[in-house]
């Protein structure tokens, strides 16, 4: 069935019903006011201001009428607004226009900011998510609350980069910031984004660099392959009102030519939290929200939103944020979405579009914490997630929703069985890694590289046949998974390092193979560590620091636990569950180790019992119990 919250018992007030109570009561001006704000170091930052307009006013943005509003801020490196060719049609603000159109008519001022070194703003970017942008955000909020239309209360939201910017704004401790809604965004740039499991996403680094050059240098030909920015009527960043001829914006773009290059910058961070050789104060922590989360006041409300196909770790980021900020009013929403909820990723969807009204849920959140309305949000469960194939929303009092794990043991003849292998001597299955194998180009990784994905894993059929795979007998009843599965392996490698990729597949009764989820880990980083206070997880945690990294001893069996990316998925009665191990994903990751494909040996029995731990519930409980 369609992802229709009005049909779900998981909410007391479903988002679609809440939206009906909040019709538009203001008008959106035809165009915003736009200006430069001068920062502490003289850098000029471009902003757009959208104010709610009286419904009977003309098309111009008015600031003089008697109205004070809370403000929602969005800090973007992807142009606050494009300049449009004369007579052009289309959305000049494809990155944040949906927020403007939804919130302004419902009584919120919206401020959209070109972050330093991007769009029409001056300056040079010295980093991905530069700490200088965090300092700028404080001055932007200072300006907002000094305006006659401001009620002194500020929130922040946005997708991906913008969501992390909301985290950073809250971490400043600014007294006016009361609520943030980071959407589809990281908690740790290292593991959630560019080095999941300690393995660099090489293809992502290259694609993001092309996007950055296309936008920051105004190289429009590079944007034609990016569906979000391919409108031929886009003519670079929109100048501010004081710069009608674009003289200042051209000067700003000239400064952008000195911006960092992602292909050169990101590989510097081979180890998490290791400082740059030329700057002992700068590491991957410098552009990761968790590292500054201690600055978020306890009264700042946080709504984390993600999807089950949200890149290689954004869902982990949303969950880690929820778990870490335990003292703040917090909410977690995870749907059947890819990065940015562009589409519904469930194989059983009825429409391609992500038709869940998530903007209404964000509105309810801001209404509750910025406007002080009695929305009933405090009477909802703090966690909502969608179970694919069950095609139903669930609620839960915390994460993970299930605390019971079923063990599936690796058995003889590549079986996956419910009982541990009873053998006095451990047996080993040897698998020779083939560096040419991959997962294709319809995966969870494409959307975060700004590639317009509409189908997910459509060519998964037969891919696991080239991997080391173990399969259950047909299930006697439905089994619903919710949370992080874990591959608990005893294994050895012929080389001192290896990239370990694990996959879960459902093989339906008719033989159809469906990708469920995956996990990845560079063996160099196999050592587990306790979670720090600013980075809470419920899955095996690694520091990914140099001092915890160590090569494998070739041929020596070691115990390695690999968490899968979280998901909620119902396996049908009659289906079989398959666990697969591989040592390469040539479509997204580099070789580990270079030019030396390892032979991996996975052990069974004899005190070295490899297994897969799945958080599942069976039968009727897999389909019921949506209300806790």
In a few lines, what is going on in this structure?
The chain has 11 helices and 28 strands. It has 628 residues and is of the alpha+beta class. It folds into 2 domains: 315 residues, 3-Layer(aba) Sandwich (Rossmann fold), CATH 3.40.50.1820; 218 residues, Jelly Rolls (Sandwich).
Helix and strand arrangement:
Blueprint lengths: L14 H6 L6 E2 L4 E6 L5 E7 L1 E2 L15 E8 L5 E3 L12 H7 L5 E6 L16 H15 L4 E10 L1 H11 L5 E7 L5 H6 L7 H15 L17 E4 L9 H10 L5 H4 L35 E9 L4 H11 L5 E9 L19 H12 L13 E5 L4 E5 L9 E5 L5 E2 L9 E6 L35 E4 L7 E5 L2 E8 L5 E9 L5 E10 L35 E6 L3 E5 L4 E7 L16 E6 L6 E4 L1 E3 L1 H4 L5
Parallel strand pairs: 5-7, 5-8, 8-9, 9-11, 11-12, 12-13
Antiparallel strand pairs: 1-4, 2-3, 3-7, 6-10, 13-14, 15-16, 15-27, 17-26, 18-25, 19-24, 19-28, 20-23, 20-26, 20-27, 21-22, 21-25
Rg from Cα:
25 Å
- What is the typical, i.e. mean, pLDDT? 94
The dominant shape is globular
CATH topology name of the largest domain:
Rossmann fold
Specify the CATH architecture of the largest domain. 3-Layer(aba) Sandwich
Write out key terms for the chains shown.
2 domains, 26% strand, 28 strands, Rossmann fold, single chain, alpha+beta, Jelly Rolls, 628 residues
């Amino acid at each position: 069935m369609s992802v229709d919250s009005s049909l779900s018992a998981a909410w007391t007030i479903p988002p679609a019903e809440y939206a009906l109570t909040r019709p538009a009561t203001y008008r959106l001006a035809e165009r915003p006011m736009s200006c430069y704000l001068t920062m502490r170091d003289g850098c000029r930052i471009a902003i757009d201001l959208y104010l709610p307009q009286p419904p009977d006013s003309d098309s111009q943005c008015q600031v003089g009428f008697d109205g004070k509003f809370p403000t929602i801020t969005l800090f973007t490196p992807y142009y606050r607004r494009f300049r449009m060719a004369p007579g052009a049609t289309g959305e000049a603000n494809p990155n944040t226009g949906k927020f403007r159109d939804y919130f302004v008519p419902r009584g919120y001022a919206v401020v959209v900011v070109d972050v330093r070194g991007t769009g029409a703003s001056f300056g040079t970017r010295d980093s991905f998510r530069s700490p200088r942008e965090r300092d700028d955000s404080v001055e932007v909020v200072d300006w907002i609350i000094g305006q006659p239309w401001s009620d002194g209360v500020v929130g922040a939201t946005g997708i991906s980069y913008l969501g992390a910017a909301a985290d950073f704004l809250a971490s400043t401790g600014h007294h006016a910031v009361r609520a943030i809604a980071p959407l589809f965004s990281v908690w740790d740039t290292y593991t959630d984004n560019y080095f999941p499991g300690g393995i660099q996403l090489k293809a992502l680094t290259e694609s993001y660099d092309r996007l950055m050059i296309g936008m920051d240098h105004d190289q429009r030909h590079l944007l034609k392959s990016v569906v979000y920015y391919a409108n031929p009527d886009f003519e670079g960043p929109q100048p501010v009102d004081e710069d009608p001829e674009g003289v200042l914006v051209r000067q700003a773009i000239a400064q952008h030519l000195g911006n960092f290059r992602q292909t050169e910058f990101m590989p510097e961070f081979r180890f998490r939290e290791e400082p740059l050789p030329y700057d002992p104060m700068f590491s991957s922590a410098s552009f990761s929200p968790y590292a500054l989360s201690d600055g978020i006041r306890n009264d700042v409300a946080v709504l984390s939103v993600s999807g089950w196909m949200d890149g290689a770790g954004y869902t982990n980021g949303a969950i880690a944020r929820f778990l870490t900020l335990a003292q703040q009013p917090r909410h977690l929403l995870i749907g059947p979405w890819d990065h940015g909820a562009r589409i519904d990723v469930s194989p059983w969807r009825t429409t391609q579009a992500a038709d869940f009204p998530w903007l209404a849920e964000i509105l309810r959140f801001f209404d509750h914490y910025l406007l002080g309305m009695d929305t009933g949000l405090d009477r909802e469960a703090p966690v909502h997630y969608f179970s694919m194939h069950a095609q139903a929303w669930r609620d839960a009092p915390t994460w993970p929703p299930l605390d019971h794990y079923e063990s599936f043991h690796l058995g003889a003849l590549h079986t996956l069985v419910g009982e541990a292998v009873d053998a006095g001597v451990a047996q080993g299955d040897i698998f020779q890694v083939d560096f040419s194998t991959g997962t294709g180009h319809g995966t969870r990784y494409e959307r975060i590289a700004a590639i317009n994905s509409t189908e997910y894993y459509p060519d998964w059929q037969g891919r696991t046949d080239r991997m080391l795979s173990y399969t259950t007998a047909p299930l006697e009843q439905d089994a619903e998974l919710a949370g992080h599965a874990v591959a608990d392996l005893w294994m050895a490698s012929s080389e001192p390092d290896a990239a370990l990729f694990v996959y879960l597949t459902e093989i339906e009764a008719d033989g159809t193979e469906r990708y469920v989820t995956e996990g990845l880990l560079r063996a160099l980083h196999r050592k587990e560590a306790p979670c720090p206070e600013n980075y809470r997880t419920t899955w095996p945690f690694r520091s990914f620091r140099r001092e915890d990294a160590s090569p494998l001893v070739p041929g020596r069996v070691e115990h390695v636990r690999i968490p899968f990316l979280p998901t909620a998925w119902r396996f049908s009665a009659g289906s079989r569950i398959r666990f697969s191990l591989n040592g390469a994903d040539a479509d997204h990751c580099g070789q580990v180790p270079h030019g030396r494909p390892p032979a991996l040996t996975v052990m069974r029995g004899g005190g070295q019992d490899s297994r897969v731990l799945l958080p599942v519930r069976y039968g009727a409980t897999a389909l019921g119990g949506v209300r806790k």
